[in-house]
Amino acid sequence: MKKHTEIPPQNRGYILACPFLYTLFISFTPACSQEITHFITPRRTDERLAGGQPPHFIAVQRDGKKRNALFLFLPGTGNSPDAYCGIARLAAINGFHAVNLSYPNAISVNFTCTDENSLTCHQNMRTEIIWGTDLSDKIQVDSINCIQSRLVKLLDYCIEYFPHDGWNIYLDKKHLPAWSRIIVAGHSQGGGHAAFIGKKRATAGVVMFSSVDYCSTYDKPAPWLSAKGLTPPSRYSAMGHMRDRAFPLSLQLKAWRALNLTVTNPLVNVDTIGYPFKHAQALISDARPSRERPSETPFHNAVVVDYDTPKKEDGSLLFEDVWRYLLLRLRPPPPAILPPG
Fold it and tell me: What are phi and psi of 209, to 5 degrees?
């Protein structure tokens, strides 16, 4: 099939961010689909946003079935949206609107809070990064530069410049994210933000890769993980690598249990158990990272970062079925049809 990729003129300088994915995704793109991708610099959506930050990445399928659900992905510490093109484009190919959001992620939440005596350090940092509420002295993120504001401004931009792609359904009547239509996912720090949003908002679901929060001083998961939330625990999913050294799997498991995920014993290893992975919420792998470029945390990244995620012999993505499973098990139900009058 012929690949269709549109890049607005102001963003064409970013087209080479995901070069290997251009041909890689031809192998599993349905012949009837027309997948459109864009890189959009944050300041194009609002000139008040901080400059010098990487562009957002969005993907949508123009033809074929649409699920009327948004896949929102939040990168890990120091990573940019273009490091996660693979999972976003897979989401688009499967009928989701997809956004990899650029946000202030230079400071690691877990590393900053690891030796803190405060049990609220993690949640205070996340609250400020997500909603711009001034609760933490560790970071400075205002209400314009926070995650929610950036998402709203990006959706406004997409509605204006791509009016036929259906982005308008992801803003509610208060001009805030329509969380019930949004699956929030993320890697590392971003996975923690996804989980925290799920606690505070009734989302369509949460997917965490190599996450979430642990209080080393007290040797236990951050307290917010076990607090009651608005997204049911059954709509959370997680994936980790057995040789993750940046955030060891043993700590991830404690955090997943604090979230009340059903963690099977033994864990479902996607290297040996195929789709649909026993319908598990928590998945692990021991697959070797591809290490296509130098990385200090290849195993931490392997579950979802483009340059470290494993490839098959034919060059296709090893975790394609895993990502598809994590997405489709959380797809939101269709909106209720109200009776007339």
Answer: -115, 120
Measured distance CA(42)–CA(54) in Å, rounded: 8
pLDDT tens sequence across 322-336: 999 999 987 665 444
CATH of the domain at 204: 3.40.50
Q: Confirm whether pTM is higher than 0.85.
A: yes
Q: Where are the alpha helices (DSSP H) in the chain?
A: 19-24, 42-45, 85-93, 109-113, 121-131, 147-161, 189-200, 249-258, 298-301, 320-328
Q: Tell me which residue of 274, 257, 53 sits closest to 154, measured CA to CA.
A: 53
The phi and psi torsions of 271 (rounded to 5 degrees) equal -70, -25
What is d(CA 225, CA 196) in angstroms, rounded to the nearest whole number? 8
Question: Helix or strand or coil: residue 207?
Answer: strand
Separation between Cα atoms, residue 33 and residue 314, nearest integer Å: 22
Give the bridge partners for 291, in sequence order.
Answer: none
Between CA 302 and CA 271 the distance in angstroms is 13
Tell me, yes or no, whether 173 lies in a domain: yes
Distance CA 274, CA 231 (A): 27
Check: CB of residue 140 under 8 Å from CB of residue 171: no
- Tell whether 317 is covered by a domain: no
Helices (H) and strands (E) in the chain, counts: 10, 11
Tens digits of residue pLDDT in 145-166: 999 999 999 999 999 999 999 9
Domain count across the chain? 1
* Residue ranges making up the domain that contains 79: 9-237
